[in-house]
Each structure stands twice: as C-alpha cells, then as structure tokens.
C-alpha cells in the first residue's frame, strides 16, 4: 500500500463531511483509500453498531465501503488524468451516480475488511470502478461504482458544519 496522503485527505474542506469518507465527520466511518500499484485499497474494521445479526456485518455498511472507496478511487484516478498533484493539491470532487453491490457471503464481525478497486474507465466527467470486499481470504462482496464529477450546481449547504450534518 502507498504511504502518504489518503485520497480522502485530499478532499477539499467544504466536501469532507461525508458519513462514509469525510475526515471532518466525527461520527462517520472516515474511510481511507490509497493506491496499491494500479489498484486502490482501503481497510476497515466494522464497529459493534454495524451489526446485522450478531456476529455478522450489516450489508449497508458493506455498501458504504464500496460507495466511498469507489468515489475516492474516482477522485484519485480522475485527478491523475487531469494532471492534479495528488500529493499536495485538492482532488477533483466526485459523487456517486450508480452503486451496485452483490453480497457473496456473510461478512464476519471482528475482522478487518479489505476493499480493492480497479479503475475500469475514466471518460470525461465519469469514472467507473470495479471493487471487491474481502474478509481474510474470502471475497464477501463485489461492487461497481459509477462516479461523476460533482456538478457546479451541487454546492455545499451554507451555515456551520453542525447544521449541515443534521
Ligand atoms: C472529492 C470530494 C468528494 C466528496 C463527496 C464524497 C461522496 C461520497 C459518495 C456519496 O454518497 S455521493 C451522494 C450520493 N450521490 C448523489 O447525491 C448524486 C445525485 N446525482 C446527481 O447529482 C447527478 O445525477 C450526477 C452528478 C451523478 C450525474 O448528473 P450529470 O448531469 O452531471 O451527468 P451527465 O448526465 O452529464 O452524465 C455524465 C456521465 O455519467 C453517466 N451517468 C450519469 N448518471 C448515471 C447513472 N445513474 N448510472 C450510470 N451512469 C450515469 C452518463 O451516462 C454520462 O456518461 P457518458 O459520458 O459515458 O455518456
């Protein structure tokens, strides 16, 4: 895994509040994604409140990991193509247009999950990312995210962060 700045640490401050990946959302997951060669990777250990049935992870959490690793991977890949310095400059902003998830096996609690992304396409404002979620040697979910660069019209809400997070 790459050292250095996570993709999400490169999000501009006014869009760093996402529940899944915003570094400024103290109640959130704060997922961190990195390059690993041509692929992308994130690791996360679910918390007790992410339980579906005792011992197993809620599918919505698995979907969130795929969602936010996908948009993070899109931000990194799209920014790279656009010539943004990923180590120091703010990354381009991408939002989820489409999120597909296939649950292949129950996801156990108490295990660090690994999310891997492969950049399938960078085309104009769109990036497509294919992903897997693994628990140890077992692939527990597959996913696909279509991310689109945030339109200029989708501006962050005004007011203090506490208000915007409500
Ligand atoms: C870096 C900071 C990032 C911080 C945010 C992290 C976000 C974390 C993940 C999220 O939770 S984001 C919140 C959930 N997502 C939204 O609220 C997005 C709501 N949807 C929209 O605002 C618009 O539909 C969207 C911006 C996604 C697309 O509208 P556009 O008018 O900009 O897209 P356009 O029609 O120009 O299409 C651009 C390309 O995307 C494709 N596309 C658009 N919507 C699609 C869709 N739903 N499925 C598949 N492809 C889609 C479209 O076909 C086209 O591909 P091609 O260039 O190949 O023709």
Automatic annotation (TrEMBL):
- Report the residue ranges that make up the Thioesterase domain in this protein: 55-137
Membrane topology of this protein = Peripheral membrane protein
Question: Per UniProt, which keywords does this protein have?
Answer: Apoptosis, Cell membrane, Cell projection, Cytoplasm, Fatty acid metabolism, Hydrolase, Lipid metabolism, Membrane, Transit peptide
InterPro entries of this UniProt entry?
HotDog_dom_sf (IPR029069), THEM4/THEM5_acyl-CoA_thioest (IPR052365), Thioestr_dom (IPR006683)
- Which superkingdom? Bacteria
The answer to whether keyword Phosphoprotein applies is no
For this entry, the protein name equals Acyl-coenzyme A thioesterase THEM4
Which classification does the entry list for the species?
Bacteria, Bacillati, Actinomycetota, Actinomycetes, Micrococcales
């Amino acid at each position: 895994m790459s050292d250095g700045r996570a993709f999400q640490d490169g999000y501009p401050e006014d869009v760093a509040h996402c529940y899944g990946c915003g570094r400024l959302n103290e109640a959130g997951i704060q997922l961190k994604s990195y390059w690993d060669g041509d692929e992308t990777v994130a690791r996360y250990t679910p918390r007790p409140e992410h339980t579906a049935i005792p011992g197993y992870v809620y599918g919505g959490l698995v979907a969130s990991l795929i969602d936010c690793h996908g948009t993070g991977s899109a931000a990194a890949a799209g920014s790279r193509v656009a010539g943004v310095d990923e180590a120091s400059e703010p990354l381009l902003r991408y939002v989820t247009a489409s999120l597909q998830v296939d649950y292949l096996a129950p996801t156990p609690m108490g295990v660090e999950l690994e999310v891997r992304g492969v950049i399938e396409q960078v085309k104009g404002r769109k990036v497509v990312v294919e992903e897997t979620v693994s628990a140890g040697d077992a692939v527990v979910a597959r996913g696909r995210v279509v991310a689109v660069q945030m339109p200029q019209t989708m501006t962050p809400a005004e007011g203090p962060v506490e208000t915007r997070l409500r």
